[in-house]
Amino acid sequence: MNNKLYGNLIFELSHPGRRAYSLPENRFGHHPLPDACRRAKDAELPECDEMTVVRHYTNHSENNFGVDNGFYPLGSCTMKYNPVINEEISSLKAFTDLHPQQPVETVQGALEVEYNIQRALASITGMADVTLNPYAGAHGELTGLMIITSYHQQRGDTKRTKVIVPDSAHGTNPASAAVCGLEVVEVKSTPEGLVDVNDLRPLLGDDIAGMMMTNPNTLGLFEKDIPEIAKLVHDCGGLLYYDGANLNPLLGAARPGDMGFDVIHLNLHKTFSTPHGGGGPGSGPVGVCEKLIPFLPKPHVIKTKEGFAIEDCRLTEEYSTADNRIGGYLGNFLIILRAYTYILSLGRNHIKEVGPLATLNANYIKECLKDDYELPIDTLCKHEFVFDGLKDKSTGVTTMDVAKRLLDYGYHAPTIYFPLLFHEAMMIEPTESESKDTIDGFIKTMHVIAKEARETPELVKEAPHSTPIGRVDDVLAAKHPILTYRQLIHDMESEE
């Protein structure tokens, strides 16, 4: 491939006077802009012919890796399946041309979708009701914590300002608690990777607002002591919060509401097949138990004798502190629509197959690779599991090296160096949507890399070898990123 079109910036392909467009003859006369609206000098834009522009951006687009390119075993990300039917439905003009301020009677179909998915998500999670207001998972976390805070404040229990978070939790848990003005208290894990109930007991008291948990947890392990934990938290007056990032393996098998959780946030862009990654789009609905329904944020869709209606943002005097909105309107509608399409496609019966298949795939990979990769907790996992780097540490090959070498074989790397419980953590999550052939190919490649690490470790340490850009200095790139073409030219001239 021509490197001038593949690896260079569009500015480097620029030649003065070249154009990739032609405008029709001006029939409207000359109307100069006021000086205050004009640039002092022309914008520094690249000048290229049409085919150079098309080929440049087409070639660069092929560097993007996604579900349409191949297998990517990122952990704690769950959804790696985005059916085309989702995109077709969400692209219908009947949905895309809607405006959030249209009269209610003109958007009955959209409101029916939102009402139905509120009920579907409540049924799937075992909750009493759901709000679609939050636009992302972190939005959902914050909303859930605000609901918990409102509940305690409404009861006059204002001293409850602490939230317990496991040491294996996602980083957004303590961050969301801090944003909500709550103090984070960490509870330790046992050597088996589960919440240490003995460490939890002395942390509980009349200052605890609640406890945040992910189940299965970030190690992919099911928290078997949930009934006891729920009782302990409830007995001290706190509420139990479920981080829905790992709901995938529980679909159809267990419901957080039945375990004793009071609040749950869901990532529709993880568990329910919408595009994931790149910073969005997202959706983070929040479900609550019966006693917390009055604290759900508005607007909220309800069903009446006349059809579907929207409860507005005005709150009753009784719950005047419960305005827990984090965004306007009814959430990210097209993402909600994608998730609704997915749920309808599977139906009540087939959604029960998701969890068992995700669990089967993860355990299959784990068992096939544990002879080459260190498995710190050798037990049944759910949808994901964590290695602690290569089993043979004498090679000096790190988890980062393995991740970079995977790129040469056409695979996206798994999540690395998280969770922080293990020094060389490598979190792998295949989900239910991959075939055995795809998984076997990944397993074979991981064995090959382990063999390369033993026999030719430098080959792995210097990877990747076949990508447009080789191994970069991660620290330098983070501290001194080159953000503009002018800065790049300046740096190149300085080196010369």
From TrEMBL:
Location of the Glycine cleavage system P-protein N-terminal domain: 32-294
Modified-residue entries (N6-(pyridoxal phosphate)lysine), positions: K270
Keywords for this protein: Oxidoreductase, Pyridoxal phosphate
Annotated GO CC locations: cytosol; glycine cleavage complex
Keyword NAD belongs to the record: no
A biological-process GO annotation: glycine decarboxylation via glycine cleavage system
Molecular function as annotated in GO: glycine binding; glycine dehydrogenase (decarboxylating) activity; pyridoxal phosphate binding
Cofactor: pyridoxal 5'-phosphate
Keyword field contains Oxidoreductase: yes
Reactions accelerated catalytically: N(6)-[(R)-lipoyl]-L-lysyl-[glycine-cleavage complex H protein] + glycine + H(+) = N(6)-[(R)-S(8)-aminomethyldihydrolipoyl]-L-lysyl-[glycine-cleavage complex H protein] + CO2
Domain Glycine dehydrogenase C-terminal span(s) in chain numbering: 357-456
Enzyme Commission number(s) from the entry: 1.4.4.2
Function, as annotated: The glycine cleavage system catalyzes the degradation of glycine. The P protein binds the alpha-amino group of glycine through its pyridoxal phosphate cofactor; CO(2) is released and the remaining methylamine moiety is then transferred to the lipoamide cofactor of the H protein.
Family the UniProt entry places it in: Belongs to the GcvP family. C-terminal subunit subfamily.
Quaternary state and interactors: The glycine cleavage system is composed of four proteins: P, T, L and H. In this organism, the P 'protein' is a heterodimer of two subunits.
Protein name, UniProt field: Probable glycine dehydrogenase (decarboxylating) subunit 2
